[in-house]
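Hi Y.,

Following your request, here is the sequence exactly as I used it, all 180 residues.
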Amino acid sequence: MAHTYCTYWESPLGTILLCSDGTALTGLYLNATDSMAGTGIADDAQPFAVVREQLTEYFVGKRTVFDLPLHLQGTAFQIRVWTELQRIPYGVTISYGELAKRLGDPKASRAVGAANGQNPISLVVPCHRVIGANGNLTGYGGGLAKKHALLDFERAVLAQGAVPFDEVFTPLSSSIREPS
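Below is the corresponding structure, written out as C-alpha cells. Let me know if you'd prefer a different format.
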C-alpha cells in the first residue's frame, strides 16, 4: 500500500505513524518503522490536524467514536471486516467467531483474524476490541501490552467518565494500574 503523506505523532502509547492520501487517513501504525513512511514526511497534510485532535481527545477519555475521513485499502473481504470492526462499541470486546457471524460466515473466524491482523488503521478501526473465543487477548500489531492497556482504558472511561490514559496505563513500566 503506497501512502502519499506520513507524519509521526507522540501518543501515550509511544510514537504513532499516521499516513494519508492527502484527503483521508490511510494508515495508523503503533509500531511503525521509518521504512513504512514511504514517500516522506508531511506534517501538515490533510487530515493530520483533525486526526491528532481526535486522538488527543481519545487519550484524555473525551472521545469514544472517531469521525475521520478514512480510505481503507485492501481486499473486498478485508474491507468488510474493517468496516464491521468500526461497529464494535467503545469498551466492548467480541470474539473473532462473533465477528465472523456478524459478517454472515460463522466458519470464517480464521480469515477474520487474518484480516483483523492486516488492519492498516489501528485504533481508529478498533481491531484491539477483538479477542479469542475463550476471552484471552490474542495477537495485536501494536503488542499485547498495548491491546490490554487500550481495553482497560476504555473500560475505565466507561466506568468513571473522562480519565486520562496515563492514569490507567504507565507506558514506561508497561504495567496496568487500576484507575483511582
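The chain has five helices and seven strands.

Thanks again,
Q.
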